[in-house]
């Protein structure tokens, strides 16, 4: 693997740490809005394909990501539930604004269980959905079932797509390190930019979002 040997041989432990932390944060807290979750899972799968124990590791990691996503969803729901019906948005924010919160609220009110499943595949909705569901008082048992099914489908599917794509790349000796290097560089840059955007977003003036009052506005806009 040439110059990428040290990076690749850093081992599954580094991949596990990064993946589980990112997945949990993306499902639990606002900062997750700004992390490259989907591309991180695909990259992790490809990196795992370069290890001798990759197949066993990627299946174990798939289970780990499910648990991290489920735990993150529960934390996000509790955070939203404890705020009551009022969430804090950011005035003129790119993601954390009243318009987006109203859209997610309307989606949950109209589609409920199905909305939680679909939200898993939409990055910014994936993070806002648990908090809005908690604030809106969605039945916790129903939410847990939907978010768990979504977690079981989402993270493992992306990991395994990356892993089996990596197996194909392995057949071309020079291509694998180039792809891994490019993807990891992209993740590092994406994460750095995401954290910068997060700080900029949180520096904007706060404004209250009332789940009960503003949800009808989102329905009218649809």
UniProtKB/TrEMBL annotation:
Annotated compartments: Cell membrane
Residue ranges annotated for the VTT domain, each copy included: 35-162
Name of one Pfam family that matches: VTT_dom
UniProt topology in membrane: Multi-pass membrane protein
Keywords, ordered alphabetically: Cell membrane, Membrane, Transmembrane, Transmembrane helix
TM segment ranges: 12-36, 56-80, 143-166, 172-195
Superkingdom field: Bacteria
Main location: membrane
Family: Belongs to the DedA family.
Protein name as catalogued: DedA family protein
Species this protein is from: Nocardia thailandica
């Amino acid at each position: 693997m040439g110059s990428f040997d040290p990076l690749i041989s850093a081992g599954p432990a580094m991949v596990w740490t990064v993946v589980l932390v990112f997945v949990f944060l993306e499902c639990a807290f606002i900062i997750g809005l700004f992390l490259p979750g989907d591309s991180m899972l695909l990259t992790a799968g490809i990196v795992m394909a370069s290890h001798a124990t990759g197949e066993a590791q990627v299946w174990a990691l798939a289970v780990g990501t499910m648990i991290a996503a489920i735990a993150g969803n529960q934390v996000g729901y509790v955070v939203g539930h404890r705020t009551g019906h009022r969430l804090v948005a950011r005035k003129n924010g790119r993601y954390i604004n009243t318009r987006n919160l109203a859209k997610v609220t309307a989606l949950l009110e109209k589609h409920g269980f199905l909305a939680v499943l679909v939200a898993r595949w939409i990055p910014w909705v994936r993070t806002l959905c648990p908090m809005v569901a908690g604030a809106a008082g969605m039945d916790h048992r129903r939410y847990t079932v939907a978010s768990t099914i979504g977690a079981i489908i989402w993270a493992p599917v992306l990991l395994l797509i990356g892993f089996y794509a990596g197996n194909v790349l392995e057949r071309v000796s020079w291509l694998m390190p180039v792809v891994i290097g490019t993807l990891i560089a992209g993740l590092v840059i994406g994460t750095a930019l995401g954290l910068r955007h997060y700080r900029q977003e949180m520096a904007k003036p706060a404004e209250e979002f009332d789940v009960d009052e503003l949800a009808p506005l989102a329905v009218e806009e649809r």
